[in-house]
Amino acid sequence: MNDQTFTSLMHWLDILYKLWPIACGIAVIAIVWSRTRSPFFVFHQALKWLGLEGKYTCEDDQKVADDYLDLNKFNLKTGFQLRSVKAKRNLHQWMREHELEFPELRRAGRLFKANDLTFDVPGSLRRRLTQLTYVAFAGCFMTSGLFVANSDYALLKINATGTWFWAGKNEAYSVRFEFPEPFRGDAWRMQQGDCRYTNHPQPNLDIWESDVICQLVVGFGNDFVSDAISSQLKMAVALELLGLLMLGLLVRFMFWVRSAGELQAQLHLTPPAFERESHGKPVEVTESGASAVVDACG
C-alpha cells in the first residue's frame, strides 16, 4: 500500500538504476558529439562492431574516407572540433610557424577555436556571468543535497494529491514547517496523539490525506520510511558531488581563460618562425629578378 500511496526519492533512484545502460550510451554519444561535432565516428564504430565496415575499390575514395576518419579520431582525442581535413592541415602549419605544441593549445580548452586559429578570450562581463552561472548551479546542487540529507525523516509525496511532507520518529510535518516564518506557508505537524485521539488531526489537509499520513505516524510503514531515508541519503551525496563538479568546472574555466590570454599575448609579441629566420639575412636576387627590376625601372 505504501508503494502505491507514496513516492520517495528512492523511486527516482530505482528509475535511474534501471535506465543506467541507456543513460551511459547517451552520455558516450554526447561526449563524442561534443568533441567531434560529427556523427561520423559513432556510425563508423557501429558499422565496425557489426562487421559491416567496407573498403572502397577506388584509391581516391579510400584516401578520402581514411583522411576523414583520421580527422574525427584527431578531434575525439583533442576536442578541437575541426570541420575539415584542410582545417587540420592549416592547424599543423600554423603550429609549426608559431612553434606551438598540442599540450599548450589544449590548456586553453574550448577557448581555442581551431578552425579559425584564434583564442576566444572572454571579456570581463562574459567571464563574470559564466562564473556566476557555475556558482549558482553549485549552490543549488549543494543546497538541495543538504536539504534532503536528513537521517531521521523521509521526504515523501502523496501520489494522489501531490503533497510533499517529512515523516519519521512517529510524526510528520510539512516540507516548509522548519522554514523561517515568512516562508512557511500553511505549515502543519502531526504526531501520534493527533492521529489517535482526533478525528481530523490537521485542518490544512483533507481527511483522506490525514488518514494516510497517520498510518505512517502510528508506525504502519516503518520499513518503507527506513528505505526512503537510506535512498535520500544516497541522493544527497550525489547532489553534493554534482555541486563539487560545478566548482571543478568553474576552476577549469578560469584556467582556460588564463591560458588562452597568455597564448594570445604570446602570439602578438612573437612573430612566426619563418619571419624570425628571415630577419637580418640578405635577400638573394636572381638573374630573372634583377632583369625584372631593370625592366620596371626602365
From TrEMBL:
Keywords: Membrane, Transmembrane, Transmembrane helix. It comes from the Bacteria. The chain crosses the membrane at residues 15-33, 132-149, 235-255. InterPro entries: DUF6216. This is Uncharacterized protein. It comes from Pseudomonas eucalypticola.
